[in-house]
Amino acid sequence: MSITNDVLTIAGNIGNDPISNETRSGKAVINFRVATSSGYFDQRTGAWVDGVTNWYAVSAFGKLAEHARASLHRGDPVVVVGRLRQKEWEANGKKGIDVELTADAIGHDLRRGTSAFVRRPRPEQVSVAPAGDESPVFDEPSEADQDAWAGAGLRLTAEAGSGDASGESHDDALTLA
Questions:
Q1: Contact 114, 176 (CB under 8 A)
Q2: 84 in helix, strand or coil?
Q3: 153 vs 134: CA distance, rounded Å
Q4: Which of 1, 60, 93, 100 could pair with 64 as two cysteines, CB 3.0-4.6 Å apart?
């Protein structure tokens, strides 16, 4: 017997602030909803026409969930690639079907704005730096990178030792200029 998964790519807007959690085994998980619409531009009237809106529940796990937590907010335009699953439900005398997507990749939809990327070092990269090598684990952003971020209203700030609610330390952050 072969196992197949329906792989789906959606582009839409995040409908709620993503909710971070952990599985019982301590693996990071994030959940949020994405709305997609089939609206179109009517050239006769010169106006946008709203179509049907579909809602998808999206879940991500592990490093993808950790990075999504630091990057995604309500209203952000995103592209999500993942495995589709439908789940029937019944509550308060109503029945319905939820469409869930377990994300394999998530990114901002760059057709609708700009984004800045900060590579996080892998744990093995930190421990294998040769002795006496003073180069950073990851490249410092170039002037071109910083100019692009400034054009998007962002700047890189060093906040050594600052942490978030999870207790993780972050040595740098992109902030609105």
A1: no
A2: strand
A3: 31
A4: 60
CA distance 171 to 4: 41
DSSP state of 101: E
Alpha-helical (H) ranges within the chain are: 62-71, 123-127, 143-151
Q: Which of 32, 23, 22 is nearest to 167 (CA)?
A: 22
Query: Is 12 within 8 Å of 35 (Cβ atoms)?
Result: yes
Q: How far is the CA of 83 from the CAs of 17, 150, 159, in angstroms? A: 22, 36, 37
Q: How far apart are CA 14 and CA 78, in angstroms?
A: 7
Does residue 45 have a pLDDT over 70? yes
Instruction: Give dist(CA 148, CA 115) in Å, integer.
Output: 9
Predicted confidence band of residue 153 (pLDDT cuts 50, 70, 90): low
Amino acid at 34: V
**Which tokens sit at 114?**
């700009």
SS3 42: strand
Q: Return d(Cα 32, Cα 56) in angstroms, integer.
A: 8
**Is 58 in contact with 101 (CB distance < 8 Å)?**
yes
